[in-house]
Amino acid sequence: MLSSLEDKFRELKLNFSLSSALRHDVHDGSPKPVGGSGFAKVVSNPKFPSHPFFKAGRFFRVRLRHNNLSYEDDARLDGRVACLKFCDKENGGPLDLILHTGKVPQYYSADTFQEFVHAFKEGTDGLKKWVFQKPINYYSRVENIRRAPDSYYDQRYYSQVTYSFTADDGVPRVARIRMVPADGSRQSGKPEKGDQENVWYVLDTGRLVDEKRKKNYLREEFTQKLNTQPFQYRLQVQIRECNIYNSCIEWDTDEVPWHDLAIITITTPLTEDLLRLTKFQLSNQVESFTPALPVSTQGFRSLVLAVKEFHGIADSIGESGNNVDIPLDKLKYYKISVVTGNVYKAGTDADVFITILGLKGKTRTINLDQKFHDDFESGQTDEFEEMGNDVGEITSIEMSIGTGILARRWFLEEVLIQDLKSLKKYRFPCYQWLTDAVLFKALVPQNEKQLSIYLMRKFEVAQRQFMFQWEDVQGLPGRLRAQSYADLPPELRFLPEKEFDLAARFAKNLSAVNSTKLLPIINWNIYEDTPKLLSKYLKDSDTIVGHWKNDEEFGRQILNGAHPCRIERVNQLPVEFEAKKDVLETLLNKKKSLSEEIEDGNLYILTYPELDSLESEDDYTKMKVKRFLTSPSCLMYVRKDGYLVPIGITLSQNDHPLVWTPRDDMTDWLIAKMWVRLADAQVHLVCSRHLNCQLIVEAFAVATFRNLPSAHPVFKLLYPHLCYAIPIGVTSRKHLYDHTDGLFQRFLAVGNQFEDLLKESYRHFSLGDLNVPLDLDSRGVSDPDKLPNYFYRDDSLKLWNAQKKFVRTVIYMLYWNNYSVQADEELQAWMQDIHEHGIPEWELAGEHNVPLSLRTVDEVVEFVTIVMFTASCQYGALTSGIVDIYSFLPNAPTMLLAPPPTERAKLRAADSKKILMNKTMTMEAIAAFSTLANGVRPEPSLLDNHEVQWSDKAILAAIEGFSVDLKRVEEDICARNSDLRTPYTYLLPSRIPKCATS
């Protein structure tokens, strides 16, 4: 039925040219457009129901066009039109609105429209007859026309079409739209008595004799004002539940009031040629807000076809297509150089588009394409010379890539533009994966002088908040609401999903392990056969394999292994060790008592209270083994030769635990140390690494994308360190622990209590845990004279200081005083979002000490340094050693197959083998550790400084200084390592990934 109706209208359009019928005055040309681009923000209004498209707070880019309905002369008696496109492009978009002066249309169905057209064709007599045929005909004619209004802005524009309005509650409703001036300007140009008494005249509707203004005075007035200040409109809606589709019946505003739906802010004038190219079509509509489909030409719903086919605004004004003549003096040539990043899969085969924006407007959307040439390949610079409107001083550019079958994420490094008339050059650094982006100089929002760019920032943030939505998880940090990689926002899906697929990487690593030759099928000996496996993974496994039983090696790994941030200084001998005080004193070699050694700062301890509430459990994975857990304490001593060694271990927290010491049987002592290492592994992999360096960092990343536009300097500082955090977080939940056979469930003793351990650790989390100097001080380990050979401490402090120096330099360039920090609404919203949703304080949890706001420049420096360091250096320190430390399972078991000993001298050397994983489990565990340690490729290191997202010379100098500082840290570490038997390399800047990659 609908297609036959459309065919009928097309036939009518061919047989009867509306333009000739409505424009009998051959001396007046067709309407000329004026307009601009800007933004629409949906308001929060509880007076109308929640809607899937018009979500409160949602931002849209928009393009607005004003024109007369029939004639070029702005002073003539004519209708006035406003077309609103919910995107800033020539074609497409989710929604177009076509609005007219006049609350009601001059016809209410397809048949009455045909009557109206034939009346016009017959001239004045025919129209007069039509006018007096029905009262509504006369009223609607008077209601729609205006004589010489003062402005396009002060008019009231109505949809004249009734829409189906499908809200989230599913209740059927209908709606009408209007657009009014936000300042309430009085409407001008309503027809006076003389015009009202002669509305049927077709030829004599020209300008009045005393009218002296130019034919284009409305267009000039609009453009001149828009060049100095924005135009702001209110988009309003009437909504009712009964299905009344007759648009010629006005709805009682007392019964069905107008409610604000969105605020439209037009900031940038568009040229006439660009407006002529822009197509506004009622076919651009969203499912939840659409004109009701007609069923016959008599029905009220058929009005939509008349509007679509005949109002002269469904297609572009004037000539269709791109053949719009532009005066040469308004054109300019631009040389455009596009640099694609030299990173993995950076290029794209899709179409790439650019729009140049300046103080005088913007160009059309330009398709950058060189025929018979592969554009935008990885590491390639492509140059184009393009003609476009003269936009004056260039302020920003908009880049986008096509959405067709060839579309792919694209890593854009930078865009260089040269105005070939003035020869002035502009640089727009990006260094991001993108689908759409607006690139402009980094400024804090209060320093942005150009309103259009300020609103562009608002638009970007609003769009991201729509795509990046928080998911609250009881007892844990907030995270992105996404169940899989496919659910991620497009700008995060910049690599194929397989790059983030831990299961695929695990399978690949397991295949490599299984390919190792010479491994016995039976009589597996974990002590003898595991080193054969490790030879292909570890460059130097001799230190661990050859010395793992030694107390000195145990101490070295606690200080400089995979989990170097747990040890604390003892200020008082823990009560559980009191029973063995005499034995412990025999292990001291400085001829001092325990109390004296404690006072001198020579005693340290490892404790794992997070494990207190967890229990041993049956294994529900396919491995089907019993898992055992305990919460040990390990007392450690700094000998006079500088070595840190264990001197006492308890394996439970009951009132009178056994205390194991080096004086016990060698096997007893060895197994006691294994239980300490098992506990340390659980806390390392679950709490220190996964919670602090992944979940917390993911929360930082979500808040950063939600609140900071790409141009914000803090976003530019943090983006290289956060770009993988969310994809890694989503995929790791899927493969590590969100099902009963995740890697952590299979190879950690906590098994299915993984989330319980996470929540217990988060309960006690404090932001100070991520502040390296504060953390070292709180643990009492910052003094190198008291605790020597703590290379993690030494190197992390050097890196912290280098990063903080760089951050301080940049931040102090952008924030001149504390007030400028407090005035940065984007920064404050970011901090508030982290406080409320990223790191929330759940019931029964302690204070996390995350501030609600940032009040001083130094607070900004401190917090940004925390985020940067945690996402890069701390992640590197807790990840790089995983394969080294855990692959030889006796050294640091992650799971033991028998309970901890409760009696002395009951174990034999062979028993230490029985409690370790079998061959199959060992091989799978090694593959799992390799999967955790080796992430997305390639991993840019802290020394890779090619992602320079800045154009400011002072900041570029700061970046260069930062690079010099990092190289100096690298040299210092290498020089120290040259004198060590076992070098500490995990915090070499060249080994630290810029962001979490696994």
From TrEMBL:
Q: Which UniProt keywords apply?
A: Dioxygenase, Lipid metabolism, Metal-binding, Oxidoreductase
Name the Gene Ontology biological process terms. lipid oxidation
Q: Where is the PLAT domain?
A: 332-448
Q: Which residues form the Lipoxygenase domain?
A: 441-998
| Matching InterPro entries | Catalase_sf, LipOase, LipOase_C, LipOase_C_sf, LipOase_CS, PLAT/LH2_dom, PLAT/LH2_dom_sf
Q: What Pfam families does this protein's entry cite?
A: Lipoxygenase, PLAT
* Superkingdom per UniProt: Eukaryota
- What is an example of a GO molecular function annotated in this UniProt entry? heme binding
Task: Spell out the PROSITE patterns in the cross-references.
Answer: LIPOXYGENASE_2, LIPOXYGENASE_3, PLAT
* PANTHER family, A to Z: LIPOXYGENASE (PTHR11771)
Protein name according to UniProt: Lipoxygenase domain-containing protein
